[in-house]
Amino acid sequence: MNPRSTTHPFSAPDDDKFREECGVFGIYGSDDSAALTALGLHALQHRGQEAAGIVSYDGSRFYPHRALGLVGDIFGEQEIIDTLPGDSAIGHVRYSTTGETALRNVQPLYADYSFGGLALAHNGNLTNAASLRHDLVNRGSLFQSTSDTEVFQHLIATSSGARLLDRVVETLREVEGAFSLVALSRRKLIGARDPKGFRPLILGSLGDASIITSETCALDIIGAEFVRDVEPGEIIVVDEEGLHSHTPFPATRKRFCIFEYIYFARPDSSVEGRNVYETRKAIGAELARESLVDADFVIPVPDSGVPAAIGFAQESHLPFELGLIRNHYVGRTFIEPIDEIRHLGVKLKHNANRQQLEGKRVILVDDSIVRGTTSRKIVEMVRQAGAREVHMRISSPPTMHSCFYGIDTPERGQLLAANLDVEGIRQQINADSLAYVSIDGLYRAMGEAGRNNDEPQFCDACFTGDYPISLTDFDEGGATAQMSLLAGLA
Asked: What pLDDT band is residue 446 in, cutting at 50, 70 and 90?
């Protein structure tokens, strides 16, 4: 088992995209906690489509419900919500960055401790999880899942801290990597963010209820108000006495994941003070300033390429057209059992608008190229629809390195840009021209003068190989060290 990647035999239409990480939602002080959590998770569905779970608390006991599938399928019936009573709850949507796709890995994870029950959900990836797990197993811990989130549970259980907060702080000092987490005890809702602030985490309010979640879109769906971002290295505790902020870690330079702006966060969310939609348009505009070519119009690869394509079109004064139409109703159960359908791949998800494309020179805008398989098929589709020229423009720099901080990316050898230069990739996808936004151009679109190589403002390791936290369990080519450790635990 590769702990960083899971093979999905029915995921062909999406096999050339980075997988979203996870999304978390926690609420304290509402009689409708489970229903509101389910709605919040629905808004965060883009961050994970494998599984979802909710754990609620009614003052006397915890109530969990977890399953594989989409939020609407799992929590769409009132009968399920009714099994989750209480005025506090946490929830999670998952795409596996570590661990297999199995019910035992679906979060929130729950355990009974000496101090009582605790449910925990985590977005991110620990870069020393296997090493910690190895030590914990040698000390007698019994793991029930293959998720690195369970490492948090065992570290909390074995901590010598007198209070729950002390145990959480001690645990977070031992882990390395990216984490934005929510936890629910008998008396508290806890939110915590790693000192580098890789993954988003925000505070919201709905009347007297407090909310901790991944993105502002989860607040919008329930009519809640945005309060502020949880700061990197901050621990938030909400209890009957109110909201308390703790900052137990030394200050360090923030390195928020820049790919959240390029692809992962929902366009209608605001992340770290920036509206995602406007940021993507700004990246597209910068891409146009860097690599404009004579063409008749600009078309996006929907849906993720749309905002950057709008920005490109506006900056270049070219028409914006929908030359590719996306089918939003492709279901996994539909394509899983039929090999002939699966091999159609991208045609299940996109169809070329032939009347719009025939005889035209088009600029095709997408957010990234990973393996190149989808880009090649889309260029081929546009050509078959009669386009005279197809110029590919990418609103991120070439993806040359794997991510180890909570995004499921291929090992480096499978990344097209790690093996070919831009001209080689252009030939591979059969485009008339290909250009990526430069790393400095990306930073300019973020409102910076450019990338400060001495003190980068974001985590951009997937483009530059500049990893801000040590990769204790990994080598840069993949997951060799972690796989070895986990194999020793089997």
From this structure: very high
What is the residue whose two structure tokens read 């594989």?
68
**Cross-strand pairs, 138:** none
| Domain at 12-255, CATH class | alpha beta
Long-range CB contacts for residues 238-242, cutoff 8 Å, separation at least 24: 238/28, 238/29, 238/188, 238/189, 238/190, 238/191, 238/210, 238/212, 239/28, 239/187, 239/188, 239/189, 240/187
Write down the catalytic residue from 22, 403, 459, 462. Answer: 22
Mean pLDDT in the chain? 90
The answer to whether 34 and 89 have CB atoms below 8 angstroms apart is: yes
Q: Which CATH number fits domain 275-464: 3.40.47.10, 1.10.3720.10, 3.40.50.2020, 3.30.160.150?
A: 3.40.50.2020
How many other C-beta atoms can be found within 10 angstroms of the C-beta atom of residue 143?
15
The mean-pLDDT minimum among 17-21, 80-84, 359-363 falls in: 17-21
459 is catalytic: no
Between CA 461 and CA 467 the distance in angstroms is 5
Whole-number Å distance between alpha carbons of 69 and 25: 17
Please provide residue 100's backbone torsions phi and psi, each rounded to the nearest 5 degrees. Answer: -75, 170
Query: For 54, left (φ over 0), alpha (ψ -120 to 50), or beta?
Result: beta
